[in-house]
Amino acid sequence: MTHLSSNLAIGIDLGGTNIKAALIDCGSGQLITSLSRPTLDGEFEDKVPRFALTIRDIIEEFESRAGQSNLPVGLSAPGLANPAGHCIDWMPGRMHGLEKLDWPAFLQRRVNVLNDAHAALLGEVWTGAAKGCQDVFMITLGTGVGGAVFSDGRLLKGAIGRAGHLGHIATDVNAPVDLYGNPGSLEAAIGNNTIQARGEGRYATTHALLDAVSAGNAHAEKVWGESVRCLAAAIGSLINVLDPQLVILGGGIATGAGDRLLNPLATYLDIYEWRPGGHRVRLALASLGDEAGAVGAVRSLL
Is the pTM of this model over 0.85? Predict the structure, then answer.
């Protein structure tokens, strides 16, 4: 564990809509206080992204509350993080001004930058559903499908920070390719961004689909069942590659679905999962909610 001059650190989770921040005790992972501010993506002041100025203000507010200065900052954000942890190297199309922004230079302190899904898994490993695990992967189900991998006690980042993009593995080679060139990706099979196409225009959101499932709608049950079947096949394949102790499911779709996801998923995994000696990999929902990214960002400092 890297020595910090203070037992406190600040975690920042920079999202497309909101900035979630937390002041955290580095020894226990306990969240002392937290807040949320709008990101205001696309707004600038003197050519500086508004979200960067907001983050600076949040840090000043937390330091005032703590009665300390120059607290270290862990910052999670979408995109591929620089291997040195100084910036996000690649995030096209949104979060304008984020790419290549040198956070240690801007904030004038120690800052470690990492991908938001990576941070969320680190948070779950530190104080959440995967506490104590050495081998676990997480799949996040939301507008898109993301993920992260913790293997043999360390977060897998890969050569350029791309590791963990589990939503972009292929599940159907005969289907159209996704944004990253993968045919029939997991994201296309269960992400909210494809629900209207998968549901033949009957459901505006996955939450609406799940409401129809709960009401016993046969068409909704078929659509949801096929999505969960693809997810189970993907998880079964990833289990064979990564041999985890636990698989965590996070994101708005997973937390909203609850047992409507876990029960059929377990049934399909009874078919697809290789279980040498009867060994079954445990499934769990993520437990830290909106705080996961900020908590994990602080964990990356240690």
Answer: yes
